[in-house]
Specification:
elongated; disordered C terminus; 227 residues; mainly beta
Length: 227
């Protein structure tokens, strides 16, 4: 065979190798790492508190619903979204293996409130719960069946066991000039959570389809802040 013929045969024999080394579009996505959860900040319309701040206290604002909000993380991979876990309502996860709601609860003695949220921000309405006392505040991940997410035998959660919630000062709720019109936090996500429940601890009818809350003295042990 001539030299030119040998060159053509060598070039053709190399083609499968060249094309075979391309990206495999059918390759499955890389598995997610284990989910984690941390408290970034608690907020009211008048104050904010981060873990490690001293004193461990948070003053409520003049909003009539007496809202306490929480921002959670980590969000290192995609700002605004929790790492390795999709926050979605039950039934909306599809085939996503690490997916479900965030549960935010506050408890002091027999008083408690619990909300579900589907973003890294959740807000709870304290309503008539007592103030000027210490509350345990807890956030927890739940799966699509509303079961606690567990990694290595431990619930994926974060808790601040003692945070003093102080009464607001200088409020004129009748005038309403100091409180947001909707009673919530000014920068709260519209679809973050709902606090619309009866005093018996059962889930009440939500004002929208974004979430629900539980509160009351006789809430079940599964709904308590201790998990």
């Amino acid at each position: 065979m001539s030299r030119s013929g040998q060159t053509v045969m060598l070039a053709l024999s190399a083609l499968p190798f060249v094309f075979g080394c391309g990206d495999d579009e059918s390759a499955p996505p890389a598995p997610l790492g284990p989910p984690a959860l941390e408290v970034v900040e608690f907020k009211t319309t008048a104050d904010s508190w981060k873990p490690g701040d001293e004193p461990a206290e948070l003053t409520l604002g003049c909003d009539p619903k007496r809202v306490v909000g929480v921002n959670v993380g980590p969000t290192t991979k995609n700002p605004g979204r929790l790492d390795n876990f999709a926050l979605k309502p039950p039934g909306a996860c599809g085939s996503e293996p690490q997916c479900g709601p965030l549960v935010f609860s506050l408890e002091a003695g027999s008083d408690s409130v619990r909300v579900r949220a589907f973003s890294i921000f959740a807000e709870a309405e304290l309503g008539d719960l007592g103030l000027d006392r210490s509350y345990a505040l807890r956030v927890e991940l739940r799966d699509q069946q509303d079961r606690p997410v567990v990694v290595n035998g431990v619930s994926v959660s974060a808790e601040v066991p003692h945070l003093l919630l102080r009464s607001p000062e200088g409020c004129n709720l009748d005038g309403g000039s100091e409180a947001p019109e909707d009673g919530g936090l000014p920068d709260a996500a519209a679809d973050s959570s709902e606090a619309d429940a009866g005093s018996d601890g059962s889930i009440g009818e939500a004002a929208s389809d974004t979430g629900a809350a539980e509160s009351g003295a006789d809430a079940s042990s599964d709904d308590a802040a201790g998990g």
